[in-house]
Specification:
This protein is about 45% helix and about 15% strand. By secondary structure, the chain is α+β, with helices and mostly antiparallel strands. The strands form two sheets. A four-stranded antiparallel beta sheet has the order 3-4-6-5, with helices on one face. Strand 1 and strand 2 form a beta hairpin. The longest helix is centred in the middle third of the chain and has 20 residues, at about 45-65.
Amino acid sequence: MIKEVTPIHADFRSPPRRFEAGTPPIAAAIGLGAALDWMQSLDWPAIHLEELRLTQRLLDGLKAIQGVRILGPTSLESRRGVVSFVISRFPAEQICRHLDGCGVATRGGHHCAQPLIRAMGVDGATRASLAVYSLDRDVDALLSSLNELVDVRERQ
């Protein structure tokens, strides 16, 4: 950023170094390299098939829960491992809080797509995202926690 500083003058480096303050993020760059090495070692066709299998389990399980509405395709056609849904009588934030208490991470709200959420006729949605490290037990935990939430409301 700086070539030389005196009490009365500062001599800046030429761009782009002029705009780079401090020490570069060396640890982050090394971590990124390690992550990329790991990702290149994966069998992506097999991962894609596993993601589709888990997505189908998630879709089937959500369809079986009373009051659930899946936003978007309800089959694997035009679908990836990200599923947004609503449950009648439960705001997305309440669903997410319940799931968090059960050790399941989801996201609730507008998902930076408020016009789309409104066009779907809902105030917010809960989003479950599958990833390369997702397992059957993760889908099971999500579904059983949602069933628990709905069952408690039904008993009230």
